Amino acid sequence: MSRNIVRSVRRLSELQRYKPPKWAASLKDIPQHFVRLAQRNTPIHPWDLSQLPKGFSLFIKRDDLTGNTLSGNKVRKLDFLLADALYKNCDTIFTCGGLQSNHCRATAVASRQLGLSCFLFLRSPKQTTDIGCTGNLLLCKIVGSKMIVIPQLPYKHGLKQMMEKMAKEELNQKGSSVYQIEVGGSSYTGMFGYLTAFQELIEQNVLENFDDIVVTAGTGGTAAGIAIGNYLTGSKLKCHAVSVADNTAYAYSKINEDLQAGGLDVQAEEIIDIIDGYQGRGYGLSTQHELESILEISRTTGVMMDPVYNIKAVRGMLTEMKCNPTRFRGQRILYIHTGGVFDLYDGRIDTLLASSSSAAENAQQVASWGDIDDPMPFFDY
């Protein structure tokens, strides 16, 4: 048996039959398979934020714990997207994102685990091939992904066509069969990752214990799955997504595309509240206040916020609770943490940590060898 056949058989062995929740069985074009990449049943626990307005109670669902190097919301989508790639006997994955894309990192790692080659098209504001190896880029490089730095082209009108052209070149030159994943993994197939996650929420008694769900929204795929799941079950929860992208209308249009693909006669504006105005300096850019909030939340709750998505969503959520409380159905709020911790390793928060006040605090916490009377280690087993 040839090596390629052995690889193909092993890949197909990863596929598991997908049975949707009963409440989703009427949807069109339901995926047939999934691969088990995400660590599911992520915990929900109280989240005591110091800035939480009086009267509200806040809990957090830890989807930053869906894995180690596969952590975050993207891996739930990849459960279905990479299963589709394997079922179609593809051996190469193309996807795209920013230089520090969590989606690209998760795709790179998961593809390698499944024996697939991976090409990452990384959008950069500067023309350079020296992208370094900090944050998510380190993991992408370690697993051997091929990275192509490109201009900041829009996905639907520029980048998608570029990727399709290169996919044909890969086929002609190497005989590779390419599976192309949309930016953020936000396709109709990927949406089933969070449609399935909604069943997980049901089993965790979220429908009884909460009034509102809040999540961050970039490309809109996670928000789509949560909102559609909430709608199909007839839940009385109100869903909110805090936009971190520059174009809030994009999130609504993405959810409407998924609704249409699923054969549902409802508009996104009717089933989810997209909260705008908290992008700060723009997508992927941080303000000093945002970085300070990351530090404050980490030090008081032990939960790490990423600088691109969750810190902006949490700040927006807290501001709306304070200034516009009637936006929420009730006061029992569940926030879904979508991960992104590796973004903290890109260096942007280093200056804040090294500032005079932080340095002084750290100096009190770190003892040198000269401060210890007996420097010889003693192990008491």
TrEMBL record:
Pfam families recorded: PALP
Essential cofactor(s): pyridoxal 5'-phosphate
Residues where N6-(pyridoxal phosphate)lysine is found: 74
GO terms, molecular function: D-cysteine desulfhydrase activity
Record domain Tryptophan synthase beta chain-like PALP: where: 36-339
Keywords assigned by UniProt, alphabetized: Pyridoxal phosphate
Active site residues of this protein: 101
Coiled coil stretches, renumbered: none
Family: Belongs to the ACC deaminase/D-cysteine desulfhydrase family.
Protein name from the UniProt record: D-cysteine desulfhydrase 1
